[in-house]
Amino acid sequence: MKFIKIIFFVSLCVCSLKVNAQSDVQKKISISLIGNTKTKSYIILREIGFAACDSLSYNEIQNLVEESVANLNRLRLFNFIDVETIETQDEIIVKYNLQERWYYWGYPILEHSERNLSTFINYRDLSRINYGAAFDWFNFRGKNEVLRFKTRLGYKEHYALSYHKPGFGKRRIDGILVFADFFRQKKLISEIFKNQARFRHSDNEYLRNILDVGLGYSYRPKIKYAFEIGVKFRQYIYNQEFYSYDLSGITHPRYLMPKIAFNYDSRNSIVYPVSGFYANLRLTSSLYEQNEFSKNINLNLLLQQNTSFGKTKLSLRNELFAGKFFYDNNKLVLFDEFFNFYGDFFMRGYEFYYFPSDFIVSSKNTLSYKLFDFRLNVLPSLLPNEFSKVFSVVYIEAFVDIAHSNLLHNNIYIVQDMFGDSFVYSTGIGLSIETYYDRLIQFRVAYNTCFNKIGIFAEFKTPLYKKF
């Protein structure tokens, strides 16, 4: 009996070694794409990271396949990506089963202009409602191009046209963006008092008009990183009486705004990543046409590390942001130029407040646990196949945020800054629901240490990457 056990053990070891040896043998790779009826094959193959006829082992191809799925997910061209790897005696066949999205979006606009839904409910200012219509054509011509039109009325009117082609040429590493935007407002934020916005408005006249026209170029030599350069022309038109104190009667300031940026992204998702690293370094400048007004430079750095703990459902997101606004203290600067720097920044639990400064640094840390995910075939069969399945992931979270901002003593637009030259903290718990077509719904309870208050907040957003 003992001899039989020894024979069995030796046989098991030999079989194991044989399997591992087979897994390490390099074989020719074959790639099969299924389901890309609109998307050109070269758009997909560019993201895969290995090519047909490459020689790789089964173990090597498994890691590369996992990376390729993350790369394809970041394109946001497909609802589902399922990969099947088949090893034969002579080759390894990798089959990508793709379900394409719906790419034509003509939709009405009815939205608030606050940072999130809770802020809108808190202030209940119906004058800050936007409404209108827009049309977005994603994956235009099947080449991952994006064509956009927008007509938006209400609080901040916006008329826009843009075209983005992320890859052209033989190597598909060059990209181009052209755009034109026109904004105008009868009510707008004019200063910050105790870290909250103060507004001015007119019933009949537009207090501010902004025309932006620009173009950008991107260079993406590798899958995970890209360089961008661009330039934008901006024309302000202010109501003379309203803004006479701001620029000494200059109501038509013009700026040339160059930009350079670097972007690295290895995350498994841009909606709710649980693994991978992201880095974005952006340098923009506003060059005024007259020397008596200050030129300024806006430097932003964002780093995000997402860590999954083995095969558990736990993940940790650490996000570091640092921003610096350089300008000449002895010259005039538009309020809009300052506000464009810090206006979008907020900490969880401080949604009602602004951090007016020329320097901001923050650390946002989130520990999340995936409760469950699911796919359901619940939508009516009369809808196109792109809507045939519903996918959702639900996470529970705990977070801690820290921020520090610089106090602008000589800025005429800021009154009684309570956060400047000090650290502020917040902590809390939340629930995030990733829904169809990249919509993320978030609910959280946050403790604000500065005011010793607990608040309940709701947010509904999509992942957007600003080109300017």
How would you describe what is shown here?
With 468 residues, the chain is mainly beta. It has two domains: 99 residues, Ubiquitin-like (UB roll), CATH 3.10.20.310; 358 residues, Porin, CATH 2.40.160. Helix content is 15%, strand content 52%. The protein contains six helices and 23 strands. The strands form three sheets. The protein has a 16-stranded antiparallel sheet. A four-stranded mixed sheet has the order 2-1-4-3, with helices on one face. It starts with a helix and ends in a 7-residue tail after the last strand.
Please outline what is shown here.
By secondary structure, the chain is mainly beta. The protein contains six helices and 23 strands.
Question: How are strands sequenced across the largest beta sheet?
Answer: 5-6-7-8-9-12-13-14-15-16-17-18-19-21-22-23
Number of helices: 6
Shape: globular
H/E element sequence = HEHEHEEEHEEEEEEEEHEEEEHEEEEEE
Question: What is the CATH class name of the largest domain?
Answer: Mainly Beta
Class inferred from helices and paired strands: mainly beta
Question: How large is the radius of gyration?
Answer: 26 Å
What is the CATH-assigned architecture of the largest domain? Beta Barrel
What's the β-strand tally?
Answer: 23
* CATH topology grouping of the largest domain: Porin
First and last CA, distance: 76 Å
Beta-strand residue fraction: over 45%
Ranges where pLDDT stays below 50 over 5 or more residues in a row are: 14-21, 464-468
Biggest sheet details: 16 strands, antiparallel
Q: How many domains would you count in the coordinates? A: 2
What is the CATH H-level superfamily of the largest domain?
membrane protein fhac: a member of the omp85/tpsb transporter family
Summarize the amount of helix as a percent range. 10-25%
- Average pLDDT number: 85
